[in-house]
Design brief:
The structure holds two protein chains of two kinds.
Chain A lengths: L1 H8 L6 E4 L2 E4 H19 L10
Antiparallel strand pairs in A: 1-2
Chain B lengths: L9 H5 L12 H12 L2 H4 L15 H22 L3 H4 L1 H30 L8 H23 L4 H17 L10 H30 L20 H8 L1
The chains are: A alpha+beta, B mainly alpha.
Chain lengths: 54, 240
Amino acid sequence: MHALLATVMGDSSPTYLGWGVFTIQIGNFIIISVMIVLFVLALVLPFPAGRKRK
Amino acid sequence: MTHIVQQPTSESTDSPDRGPDEEFYTWTGKARRWMLKTLPPDKLLPETQPSYVASWIYVFGMGAIASLVVLIVSGVVLGLNGPSWWHLSSFGHFINSTHLWSAEFFFLFMVVHLWGKFWMASWRGGRLLTWITGVVAFAASIGAAFTGYLVQTNFESEWISYQAKDVVNATGIGAWFNLANVGQMFMWHIVLLPLAVAAIVALHVLLVRVHGVVAPIDAADTDTQLRDAVIPELHDKADK
């Protein structure tokens, strides 16, 4: 119930990461990191072979 | 004076043997000729794809479309039940979370798709309009996501709308596009912007089918769309 209330009220306080003048909210940091990792993996991982055409 | 016009027979109108030299007089006939010439059925729904499409970098566009389908379906359920339903119902909360995460995945896949196409210079080969429709779809999606934040009917949406209100007011359109008006934002979020995104994405996909999937920059010249490369030996080599 408290979690639901917290969601409705929007009172969750975000965590921020910082390096010098650069600051980023941890959710945004995770999403951007996942996108970069996906992009790199898409370039290097082999694509599974499909069905052989006749 | 009465002109008697002979009714066309079924052979003359429905014959599948219509040649390319056939004359079209009506706008519907001319439109059909243009559509069949621009995007014939075997190009719209192809049986095969070029060998270079067998790469993970080519899956993210379809990933974004799959996410968009889930996004729209979950949004329809949320919209039919009203803006505050998800606060009071466990199922509503689940559907709201589905809507949020499909939006997250939609943007995630769209951005990786954008990176892949940017570094591939995918506007090559007459594909400039395909690239532009992708950019416009991205911009319209940002607007749709932003108005989604505004219709959560919680304190977060109130905070975001009153922060962003100053930005919109500074542009001069604040009196007409009122971020604090949840009814207006709801209409933009569930009708206008989804229609815009869906229409632009549909046009984007049709343009991809018209011009074919863009090849990597270093792809061999022979490895083009199979429609153009009709030499069977090439396909056999590509399969081996």
